[in-house]
Amino acid sequence: MKKTIVAVAALLLGTSSVYAEVIAPKNVVYQDGAVSKSLTGVAGDPAAGRKAFLNRKQGNCLACHVNSDMADQPFHGEVGPSLDGVATRWSEAELRGIVSNSKKTFEGTIMPAFYIDSGYNRPLDKFAGKSILTAQQVEDIVAYLMTLKTE
Amino acid sequence: MGFKPFVTTALAIMGMAFAAQADENAKLVIDGQTMITQTKAPAFVENLDEIYSGWVFRSDETQALQLDDFDNPGFVFLDQGIDLFNTVDGSEGKSCASCHENVEDFAGLRAKMPRIKDGKLQTMEEQVNECRTTRMGAEPWKYSGSQMTAVTALISLQSRGMPVDVAVDGAAAPFWEKGKEIYYTRYGQLDLACANCHEDNYDTMIRADHLSQGQVNGFPTYRLKNAKLNSIQGRFKGCMKNVRAKPFKEGSEEFKALELYVASRGNGLSVESPSVRN
Description:
Chain A has helices at 2-18, 46-54, 86-89, 92-101, 135-145. Chain A has 151 residues and is an all-alpha fold.
């Protein structure tokens, strides 16, 4: 048992050192709003993405979007569209682009850009030069969104 | 299996009950006086047809607290305001009441604030501190401190029921324009302007919060959230922090201009001070 854990940990560490190339916010390439390349090279974790989606200090996506997959949670926002079946309507690359900087897809949208670290006015010092989400959190949330398919 | 489907259904129904919808039929009547909580937007407010008091967007329970001054928790602070109004302070041996014998004489003032005085934009807080420093020889109060909000609430109460009517033209015009520019400028890491929430998306839910038009006709307002009277600019500060922006300073030219602009968007609504909000 113990050996397996060590082996898995070693494997994980190995993986992250091979794919340590995180794409910085300013280097993200958008094509018609979509971002085809993973920001981290590490596959997103839908379970972690679900948590970041809910977390009020991270994605807080539920603040603005209804999501039936979270029917056990009170207070779904109504500012943006429902995310039910969002993976049926959009590709992974499009969702990555929308989460990272939705203004590249929807001009003038109220939705914050979750993966930019400049270009906003008067940020509080503790947020200055930072993006709302880390690259991996974006990948995790995109992986979670990809599970929201219409049957 | 057990309870789960039932619980989920119940929550779904609750969720529906929480769905945002301003209660346009509810009437705010205090002491026999009907407040104007909805009216036609002033012509200069380009993107709204109707304007609504924040009272309209609150829950039935919160709304009820404002119907009777005995239930309104803000009135605890009004009593403090009366005491402060009558308290001698400073080198001249005066209180507010030394010059302003009847606080009722302030009827109408709140509806006109902020205003232009000697070519400058002046808020009610600044007027109070001007009296304190120049006439009373007293120390100025903190802009949104408990003494200030208690006294501005007392003065504002004298205008309750009167329609907000701040001047936007003439000498006020350049300040108003500046305030308008700030209202439509996105700030903070979340990159949001006042207008994104309070003009484009009022009457929708942002998680547990029912977005209002951000009207300031009820200020100083008692908030259940912090159990005290809140100033207009104190609220602006809170909003800016919420969007992860560095707030302007209370009493700054930016916030004063924004206060004038936001107040003007409520021209025609009744002064409700001290209102009750969540």
